[in-house]
Amino acid sequence: MITFILKRIGYGILTLFIVISITFILIRLIPGNPIERMTEELPEQTRLQVQEQYGFNEPLRVQYKNFWRDLIFEQDLGESLTYRGRKVSDTIANYAPISGRLGAQALLFGVSFGVLFGLFAAFFRGKVPDYGVMFLSILGISVPSFVFAALLQYFLAIQWGLLPITGWGTLQHTFLPSLALAMGPLAKYARYMRANCLDVLNQDYILTAQAKGASQFRIIRKHIFRNSILPIVTLLGPQVAMIFSGSFVIERIFSIPGLGSYFVSSVTDRDYTMIMGQTIFIASLYIMSLVVVDILYALIDPRIKISGS
């Protein structure tokens, strides 16, 4: 297991290096740079001094070398080019927990109810509950999250006055955006769980367990649930990283001061340092989640054996 984990971490570091390198090169291959746009009305000598200060006067290979030097030896992601004096690492540390909380609540809600609805639909296949769950799944997959956000704001906040329409700070402020963000994962997990359960229910060992007199609860917990949940875990890994990058529109709609607004603005403003910092953060989360998923495979299903070979 230790050898496997170390090998996966090594692959992850290599993947992260490739992602960072490609992102660094691509954003700098675009003609012009943000310093030129911000200093276009300044004298030529001043523009050159500002470009020299940020290192944009250097060749690309020198900028690339300096970037890795600062990242590895000084653990410095640099300062934002748009928000002067604000370090990228401080921005991530301050605003990522807000996006993380919103995404974690949405993911918890989507996975819990998606798995529950999928089990429910499988046991009532071809009946009204099954059709209801499938309708909800199609609705959740086909309708964008910002449409659900607008509907929730209109009915629950404006018409009924049950929850605040925008803002952040209390648990009540998190309910509507989390629910809007959870509709897509809920629909996806419900469909996968239903299909997996139907496949497991047709297996011979389920009939054997029933013939031995095992209770329905034991069959569901020991056989159906554990064998059906494995594909859900596969989907759950990448989704963990997406909780930080998938809530940008929702954060804008509900005026949530999360990391999403900074990511969107950094792309439009071509804030190189902010783009690189958030790319490193999200890519690291994504790679770590995949390693955790591989380890969970063996814990959930003992039939999966991990060896050094």
From TrEMBL:
Gene3D superfamilies listed in its UniProt record: MetI-like
Keyword annotations: Cell membrane, Membrane, Transmembrane, Transmembrane helix, Transport
Q: Which Pfam families match?
A: BPD_transp_1, BPD_transp_1_N
Q: Which GO terms describe its biological process?
A: transmembrane transport
Cell membrane listed as a keyword: yes
Where in or outside the cell it occurs: the entry states: Cell membrane
Lineage: superkingdom: Bacteria
Show the stretches that span the lipid bilayer: 9-30, 104-124, 131-156, 162-184, 228-254, 274-300
What membrane topology is annotated for this entry? Multi-pass membrane protein
Record domain ABC transmembrane type-1: where: 96-297
GO cellular component terms, alphabetically, are: plasma membrane
Predominant place of localization: membrane
Keyword set includes Cell division: no
Spell out the family assignment given in the record's similarity comment: Belongs to the binding-protein-dependent transport system permease family.
Task: Return the protein name.
Answer: ABC transporter permease
Source organism lineage? Bacteria, Bacillati, Bacillota, Clostridia, Eubacteriales
